[in-house]
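Batch manifest, entry 17 of 40.
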Amino acid sequence: MTSLLLNRPSPEDDTVPSPFLVDRLRSLTALSKSDLINEAQRIARYELDQPSDLRRFKILERLRACLALRPDEAWRLAAAFKAAYRSLDIEERLELIDMERDAVLHGFKVEEASRIAPLIPWLGDCAPASLSARNGSSLAVSFMAAALNLKQACGQLAENEAGYER
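Output type: structure tokens
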């Protein structure tokens, strides 16, 4: 029971990385390359074993802690996770990458997303500049387009239902 309570996200300011985690990741970067990759695999497996919400929180916490590292430490850690992810099954790898993207897009501030995107290859398109360039429109326009598509889909559904009743 106690371990479940310790794994819970804290109500504290969640934009400040845990000093404990920053120190832990910093100490990992001092390991040999193979030991660092093994530890990255262990962390990845641990994150995969968590329930979805807690997994997202843990990944967000890890990525935010990476931003507190020196650039050379952050690059070394990112390279280790990249190598560790290659050893996972494709489904597990995609799950973690998807969760990392979700954490950055929905949990990071714009400034944080700008800093993490160049560090981790599969997060490159999460940088605010590439999001706006890729989308080419504001969120309001995107929302309106989605609403129109939904309205069109509902109209199509109504026509299909009317066709089935005949």
